[in-house]
Amino acid sequence: MKCTINGLKWTVQNADANDAILQFKGNPCFGMTDYPSLNIYIRKDQAKELYRQTAIYELIHAFTFSFGVHLVANEKTEESVCDFMGAHFDEIYRLANLIMENVYEGG
What we know:
This protein is an alpha+beta fold. It has one domain: Arc Repressor Mutant, subunit A. The protein has helices at 48-66, 75-102; strands at residues 2-5, 8-15, 23-24, 27-28, 31-34, 39-43. The strands form two sheets. Strands 1-2-6-5 form a four-stranded mixed beta sheet, with helices on one face. Strands 3-4 form a two-stranded antiparallel ribbon. Helix 1 crosses helix 2 (75-102). The longest helix is centred in the C-terminal third of the chain and has 28 residues, at 75-102. The N and C termini lie far apart (36 Å).
């Protein structure tokens, strides 16, 4: 599928576990964001919940790149941010909606 992030047109596609694109420094991974080609690859044989976390994780890579947030310069920071958001985004989103429904008084 195609998606646009800050004017950049990204392609998101499935990949097999043994595809070379899903190797990072000799280690297998669940997904990969290729900045030069604007492609996101997600390992297709994951459980639904893990696939979703991987999609969120890779989208955060794409968003930071697309908006010029230079986490890439500090690989450890970028990976930590993506790990955290991949694991917790759904809960943050759910709680934000609850707050808006139950606390926000602006109509």
